[in-house]
Amino acid sequence: MRQLWVWMLLMALAFVNDRCHCCLQEERSGLLEIKAWFGHASDGSYELQGWDKEHFNCCNWSRVECDNITNRVIKLDLSYVNYDDQKDLYLNASLFLPFKELEILDLSFNQLVGGLKNQGSLRSILFSLHRK
Predict the structure, then answer these.
(1) What pTM was estimated for this model as a whole?
(2) Helix, strand, or coil here: 64?
(3) Which of 45, 64, 72, 96 is the 20 to 30 Å CA partner of 103?
(4) Contacts of 16 (CB under 8 A, 6+ apart)
(5) What end-to-end distance do the CA atoms of the chain give, in Å?
(6) pLDDT at 99
(7) Contact indicator for 28, 58 with CB cutoff of 8 Å
(8) Number of C-alpha atoms within 13 angstroms, CB side, residue 131?
(9) Cα–Cα distance, 55 to 119 (Å, whole number)
(10) Strand partners, 128
């Protein structure tokens, strides 16, 4: 009987451990906000169509890389999301505030021409990326 309890405990721990390998809710919500921003700002959100609120583990989403230990987003590849659109974009840098361990942010080829006032500074976001 004791072996059965030990086996059940190990199975429960394996289940909980497996469920914990997901990105943080705050960062998942942040990624969905980035997708929505690109959707409102341009037609490029189709590049992020795999980002879906139904898929809980954003660490498995395309263009996203997470730390294996903390499960925090460490890399975002947002290059070419607005590449085909002819509209210039003004970046809302505050969209990147939820990502506390972000090390690499690629925003290249998106027709970015500046930032929105009172929405955070891209310079401060880049500074926080490089001070690590």
Answers:
(1) 0.72
(2) strand
(3) 45
(4) none
(5) 52
(6) 94
(7) yes
(8) 8
(9) 28
(10) none
